[in-house]
Amino acid sequence: MAKHVKSITYGPKIEAVKDGRCTQTIRTGRGVSVGDEILFHGWSGRPYRSKWDWRKRVVVTECLDIYISQNHIGIWERNIYFKYGWKKLFCDKLAALDFIDPPTGEALRDVLFKLNGIPKEPVPAQIIRW
Fold first, then answer.
1. I need a labelling partner for 3 at 20 to 30 A (CA). Which of 28, 37, 88, 99 fits?
2. Could you state, in order of their start, the residue ranges of all structural domains in the chain?
3. pLDDT in tens, 42-84
């Protein structure tokens, strides 16, 4: 079981993570596994240029490997690649669980692209739940 430190910088999500209403995050990369511990934190001012403001430790209970592309979220399941377009109900549900405002797939896409850049090809990512 590994330990990770991750910041939360998306404004509408911060209070929900702190008080336990939000138990999901979507992150690029594949370094997190079920049973890992994550120390989430926020910043007192400008991200990465100020001190930590708050902290919350969680244990990962679920990890789903996905791909983020310009047009969809993709998931491999039993050697079949499923594509969920940003306007599909699946992405709307992910957005709601991630406290995206408004809770739509398109808004989720915009937040992910703002935080990670617009991918030229599908990027490995994870849906992490605690």
1. 99
2. 3-129
3. 999 888 899 999 999 999 999 999 999 999 999 999 999 999 9
In terms of Cα–Cα distance, which of 112, 124, 119 is closest to 69?
119
DSSP state of 96: H
Whether pTM exceeds 0.85: yes
Q: Can you give the pLDDT at residue 21?
A: 97
Architecture per CATH, domain 3-129, reads as Roll (2.30)
Residue 47 is predicted with a pLDDT of: 84
Contact 55, 39 (CB under 8 A): yes
